[in-house]
Design goal:
Largest sheet: 2 strands, antiparallel
Low-confidence stretches: none
CATH topology of the largest domain: Arc Repressor Mutant, subunit A
Radius of gyration: 16 Å
Number of strands: 2
Structural class: mainly alpha
Order of helices and strands: HHHEEHH
Helix content: 55-70%
CATH architecture of the largest domain: Orthogonal Bundle
Number of domains: 2
CATH class of the largest domain: Mainly Alpha
Strand content: 5-15%
Length: 107
């Protein structure tokens, strides 16, 4: 998510936007209607005003989409990164973990 952001930020500085994005993606994965700013604030424990500021930034970077109904993830953000080296490493790690879990379940 930090692509395109200044490199002087550390990972802790990006934590609120990661929380907000996870809340939105979790909501999407459950097949629920777009999540409201208030619901995101309740779920993350972040102040509503801060959530609104972070949402503006996440919208600007096309991580999420905002509408009158609420917020949803923007798949264009993920699709643009499918060929990234780090994405390949994430997929490999998920596959390895799945194999190990399957091996554990069979033993």
């Amino acid at each position: 998510m930090l692509e395109g952001y200044s490199r002087d930020r550390n990972i802790a500085a990006a934590f609120p936007e990661m929380l907000i994005t996870m809340a939105i993606r979790d909501n999407d994965d459950q097949g629920l209607p777009p999540i409201s700013v208030s619901a995101i604030a309740r779920q993350t424990g972040l102040p509503r005003a801060s959530v609104q500021r972070w949402l503006a930034r996440l919208t600007q970077h096309r991580v999420i989409k905002k509408s009158d109904e609420g917020c949803v993830g923007d798949d264009r953000f993920l699709e643009a990164r499918l060929d990234a080296k780090y994405f390949e490493r994430i997929v490999a790690a998920i596959r390895l973990a799945a194999r190990q879990l399957g091996d554990d379940a069979r033993s």
